[in-house]
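Re: that chain you flagged

S.,

Sorry for the slow reply, it's been a week of failed gels. I finally had a moment to sit down with the sequence you sent. For the record, here it is as I used it:
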Amino acid sequence: MTIPAPDVQTHLSPLLTDLYQLTMLHGYWIGGMHLQSAVFDVSYRRNPFEGGYAVWAGLETVLDYVLGLRFDAASLAYLDGLKLFGPDFLAALAGWRFTGSMTSFPEGSVVFPHEPLLSVTAPLWEAQLIETALLNTLNFQTLIASKAARCASVIGQAGEGGTLIEFGTRRAQGPDGALGAARAAYIGGAAATSNVLAGQRYGLPVVGTHAHAWVESFEGELSAFRAYAALYPDATTLLLDTYDTLSSGLPNALTVAGELRAQGHELRAVRLDSGDLAYLSRRVRSALDAAGFAGVKIMASNDLSEEVIQSVIREGGRLDVYAVGTQLVTGGGPGGGALGGVYKLAELAGTPRMKLTGDPAKTSLPGAKRVWRGVDADGQSAWDVIGLAANLQPPQPGERVSDPSNPLRSSRLPGGLAWHDPRQTVIEHGQRIQPPEPLPALQARARAELSRLPEGTLRLLNPHAYRVSLSAELQASRDRLIRSLQGGDSEAG
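Prediction finished late last night. Pasting the C-alpha cells below so you have them in one place:
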C-alpha cells in the first residue's frame, strides 16, 4: 500500500514573493499600519478555456506553505544585502508568523467568476506577504484541475468507461510545475500519473509503458516486445508505432499476447502515439477482439486535448485510456495558458476597501463577504449569490440581485432553492482547524459537484453561463463606496 507523504511545497521560503510585497511590508511597518486587521479575497474574472466553470485546486498546498512560512537566517541575510530594509525591520521579520484566519471553498469544489474563493483575515503585513505564493499556487493548480475535468467530462460522456491519465512531466514548466500539475490533474479527474515523484509525494497511482527508444535498442520490434513482456508479464503495455502501427506493431503485439497467455499471463494494453487515432484504434480493436484478446486495452497519447478526445470519440474511436500530456500540464488551449486570479484588499480596520478602475469589469467587491449556493429540488446547483459576511440570513425568493460585472443587469431570485454557504474556515488564529483531506476525497468532490451543474455547463463550446449575482446589500455597499471614491474621499479606498 502506498503511503502518501505530507502535501508540502518544494520551497517554503518567504522569498518566493515579488519584491514589492516586501517593500510594502516595510512601509506598513514604518507607518505603524502592519498590525491593522485586513481582509483580502482571491477571485478570478473569466472561466478558463472559455468554459462554464473552474475546479478549485491548490488549497492544501497553500495551507502548508502559509503555516510553515518563516524568515530564516539565510533569507534575512539576503534581504539585508539588498540595502532596502533597516535592521529593526529585518529583526521584526525574524518573528513573522501567520496568525490570521482563512475561509475557502473546499478543494475540489466547482467555482465561478467573481466569487471570493478564499478570504484571508489577518494583520495587514501577514495578509500582504502571502499574496504572490497564494496566487502562484492556486492559479496554476486550478487551471490544471479545470483542464483535467474538461478532459474527464468528455471521456465520461462517451459512456464507455474510458480513463484519463496525466502524461506530461517532460513538457511541464519545470519540476515544480510537473508536480503541481500531477496533483491538480488528479483532483480534476485523472486516474493516475506517469510522474514517479508525484506518486511518491502525493500517493498517486503511477503508470507507464516504454518509449520508442526501447524498441530501437533491439535488433527487431518483436524481440523488444518479448524482452519487455518477460520483465513485466502481468503489467505490459506495448507501443505499436515505432515502425508501422498496423503492419508491424500490431502483429508483433498479437504474437507476444499469445505467448504471454500460453505462460499464464495476459497482455495489459497497447499504446498508439501517432496517426489517425480514431481509425487506428478501430483497426487495432477489431484485430485484438478477433484474436481473442478483448480484454487488452488501447491507450493513446499524441498531444491529446479535450477537443481531440471529443473528435476521436465522435469518429468512432475505440480508446480505453487517454494519456494527456502537454495540453494538460501546461493548461494549453483557447482561454488557457494562465488563470487570471487576483488578490484584492476588501476591508482594512473594519472599513470596506475596493479597487475602482476605468474598466468596470475589474472593479473589486468591497467588504467581508460570504457566498450562498442555491440548490434546486433535484439537488442541482442553480445559483450563487455573493453577500455581506455580517448577514447570516440566506437569500430570499423574489430578492433582487445584480450581475457582478454589470450592475444595471439585475434579476429576482426564484423560489424553491435551498441555500447553503459552500465555504468553510480552514485556518483560525494561525491554526488549522480541520485535518487534510486525502486526494481521492478531493477528486470525488469535484466529480460530484460537476454532476450537479445545470445542463449545458459542461459543454466545451458556448457553455451555459452559471448564475452568479451580488446581493442587494453588497451592491448598495459597492455603489456607496464608488460614489465616495469618485467624490475624492481618499479615506474610502
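What I noticed first: Residues 131-157 form the longest helix (27 residues).

Talk soon,
D.
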